[in-house]
Amino acid sequence: MESSENCSVKVAVHVRPLIGDERIQGCKECVSVTPGKPQVQIGSHSFTFDHVYGSGGTASPAMFEECIAPLVDGLFQGYNATVLAYGQTGSGKTYTMGTGSKDCSQTGIVPQAMNALFSKIETLKHQTEFQLQVSFIEILKEEVRDLLDSVSLNKMDNVNGHSGNGKVSAPVRQPIQIRESSNGAITLAGTTEMSVRTLQEMAACLEQGSLSRATGSTNMNNQSSRSHAIFTITLEQMRKVHSVFPGNDSPDEDMSEEYFCAKLHLVDLAGSERAKRTGSDGVRLKEGIHINRGLLALGNVISALGDEKKRKEGVHVPYRDSKLTRLLQDSLGGNSKTVMIACISPADINAEETLNTLKYANRARNIQNKPVVNRGLESNEMQKMRQQLEYLQAELFSRGGAAPSDEVQVLRERIAFLEASNLDLSRELHVYRSRRAVVGQCEADLPDDYAPLTKNDGLKRGFQSIDSSDYEMGEIISGENPREVEVATKEREHEYMQNTLDKELNELNKRLEQKESEMRLFGGIDTETLKQHFGKKIVELEEEKRIVQKERDHLLAEVESLAANSDGQAHNKAHDSHTQKLKSLEAQILDLKKKQESQVQLVKEKQKSDDAAKRLQSEIQSIKSQKVQLQHKIKQEAEQFRQWKASREKELLQLKKEGRRNEYERHKLEALNQRQKMVLQRKTEEAAVATKRLKELLESRKSTVRDNAANSNGHTSVTQSNEKSLQRWLDHELEVSVKVHEVRFEYEKQTQVVLSMSPDSRKARRESVENMLSMSSNALIAMASQLSEAEERERSMIGRGRWNQLRSMGDAKNLLQYMFNTTAEARCQLWEKNLEIEDMEDKLNELVTLLQISETQRKELVREVRAKEQAAATALVKSDSKIWVVPCLQFPSAPKQLKFTPGVVNGTVKDSVAFANQTRKVNIFVSADGANGTTFDEEISNRCTSWETLEVEEKSSSVASAVQMEVAEAMETFRMD
Ligand SMILES: Nc1ncnc2c1ncn2[C@@H]1O[C@H](COP(=O)(O)OP(=O)(O)OP(=O)(O)O)[C@@H](O)[C@H]1O
């Protein structure tokens, strides 16, 4: 492809006249054009464009000649072109383009472009072969559709609401994919490309597509285009090119072919619209939203490209925000010559939209495109070769006057230079190879302290002991670990390696560049052509020599015949002149012979230089392959390092995780220890008390036994006091028994604690528990001694020992009675406790049942509340009403603070109605999901693209009070609920 200079997007404004409806409404013209200047005024604003047509500007028919014809001419030179009609709905885009079904007359740009194209083809057809293709697509609701797809055209659908109201029709078509080719060109996969030969065929395609295009009736245009349409003409040319050679006078022998392929996009955009003015609702409204969205994206692209500051800052151009901008990527800022026609209405009611259109158009003028000649690959090659040939021819011409010996000298010098450079190249190659070997050995040759770090096992070794202790973990986290050092070293090593390889690569690139530039010197000479040229020259010289020899022979014959026939002076005179002629001929022949020889020599020298060039070429090839290898190695090394780093980071992450886990565990253990310590302390204290009590009991038992013995020895016992003392004794015995049991229990627990403190326990825990242990071990010792004493006694009491004190049957009976009463009392208490437990269980069950019931009730209530909310919303948002007064706070998904334009209340229904009464405006609150079949997001986007749909201005107070009543009812329902 040939590069071309940047060229800015050309902008023409087309002001249509006031149309019927506008006249009926009594509209006035608010747009004026400065006579003789491409300047438009609207109010206090003034804009200058490339051209202005209509309403006092240049007459509309001139538009084609001035704006479009140059683009059509450019097509034949291989330049892509785009014509873009932009403007508000009803501003005359379709009319200007001539893509409306009934407007496919000769007035529109598209039909005129087609005419111009075919008439130019007619004049050029003798030297150029042409092929034409057309495609026609539309972007409807962010879907690309093929308007020439005859199969799907038959399947008319109602899906988009383009039928049924008798106004609109749109066929079902397969979605088409937008693709970007390797050279950055945007293409459409799956579109119909109709091959056309005649103007009629092309016009038929335009008409067919125009008829299939989605249109609909709105308040502003009864045949409004509901989609963006792109009619594309692809012109392929195979042109015969005449190559000029010196000494070659027959042009037919050097004809070659050149291939060009250029596209002309004719774009009729759907018009920007405000739903309030178009009166759109339902499907039309949705279409309008999509149209505005696409145009908004276009506007963003235009501002990104049109703002010089943004362009310099390299601001991202949001081509991908919509299909429209994606498809127009080449036309805006890319490989295309583009003309934008801003269509405007002069009517004062459209002033705002007109001003917006003019602002956009003004910005578009700053867009810089980079159109290039689109040749085929082969043609590009041919172009290069042609340039080479021209160079060669120039060289040959420049040498034409030089003596053959000079030519030989020049060639010799070149050969010498080539040989010298060849030698240099070989030397460099050798150096490079040896360096590469050094780099290859880099790993192996690394210093000793590098070596273990490059090996994986070193790494593993580094990680092996990681879980062995908390201490090590702490080190890792604090970053003081040798592993950190290892990573740093590895990174340094990687950096070093990359730098070395990069340096190598740079050097290699430099060499390659140098060699390629040398090679270009050879490349400038077309060997074949030179050979042919010299061959031809040799033949010519031989021919000349032959002629001269013939002349010489003829002269010799003449001289001989003169010698035989003539006499005297005349003979001598004639003989002299002939001899002179002969001599000069001989000299000529000699000269020709020399020339011939030098030409042969030249051919040989050329052969040598060709060989040198070949050698150079092979050297370049080998450097290239080495470069590829080196690049591969760099990539591999980088990949290996990346993998190593990733695994290292993963391991580190795991270690950190483990560290955190251990830390947590440590805290947990500390807390547990603390708790245990406290429990142990309490238990130890309790055990000490129990032990003390046991000791006391045992002491008192001894004294009791002594008393009883004394009593029995003196025979002075009184029956009653004996009875009491027996009972006391039994109580005492029982208490001793229970205490022994208690101490035993405590003792066992303490032992368990001590056992649980195994020697393997972690250091920290062991230290903290050691103190506890020393505390409890003292208690344990005391307990153990008391226990052994008590149990020893208990053992001696088993059997008869315990009852030695019973001296009579009466004693035994009394004691039994006492025991019976105590047991009965204990059982009664037990029964009462059981009763209490049963009671509590019943209560618990009751509570559980109650809980279940209340959960079910809660769920039902939630369901009811939701249903009522829904009902309230439906009551408020009537499907046929455009006034939606819905308090957004009632809906959980609605944000609490919706941003509205100033003066609009955002709050409760009450607020909104109060505001409505006060301002005589009905304020629209965006409802939440589900209201009127729209989602919250959709509502927001509706509101953003066209505010007017959601705001009903200057409604009478009766409307407001009607709304108020509805709202009051709804609120009442809410309150009752
Ligand atoms: N230059 C003009 N002279 C006379 N009438 C025109 C001219 N331009 C447009 N009109 C009329 O204005 C009306 C709207 O034009 P048109 O359909 O081309 O608008 P549009 O911009 O394509 O609208 P939409 O974006 O809705 O498709 C049509 O009735 C058309 O005939």
Automatic annotation (TrEMBL):
Q: Which UniProt key words apply to this protein?
A: ATP-binding, Cell wall biogenesis/degradation, Coiled coil, Microtubule, Motor protein, Nucleotide-binding
- Where does the record place Polar residues bias? 709-724
UniProt cross-references to Gene3D superfamilies, sorted A to Z: Kinesin motor domain (3.40.850.10)
Enumerate the GO terms in the molecular function aspect: ATP binding; microtubule binding; microtubule motor activity
Domain Kinesin motor: start-end pairs: 8-367
Query: Region (Disordered) spans which residues?
Result: 701-724
Residues annotated as coiled-coil are 498-640, 837-871
**Alphabetized InterPro entries for the sequence:** Kinesin-like_fam, Kinesin_motor_CS, Kinesin_motor_dom, Kinesin_motor_dom_sf, P-loop_NTPase
The GO annotation for biological process reads: cell wall organization; microtubule-based movement; mitotic spindle organization; spindle elongation
- An example Pfam family from this entry, by short name, is Kinesin
The residues listed in the UniProt record as binding ATP, with positions renumbered to this chain, are 87-94
What family does the Swiss-Prot or TrEMBL record give for this protein? Answer: Belongs to the TRAFAC class myosin-kinesin ATPase superfamily. Kinesin family. KIN-4 subfamily.
Subunit structure, as described in the record = Homodimer.
Q: Give the matching PANTHER family.
A: CHROMOSOME-ASSOCIATED KINESIN KIF4A-RELATED, KINESIN-LIKE PROTEIN KIN-4B
**Entry protein name:** Kinesin-like protein
Organism of derivation:
Cannabis sativa (Hemp)
Traced from the root, the source organism's taxonomic lineage reads: Eukaryota, Viridiplantae, Streptophyta, Embryophyta, Tracheophyta
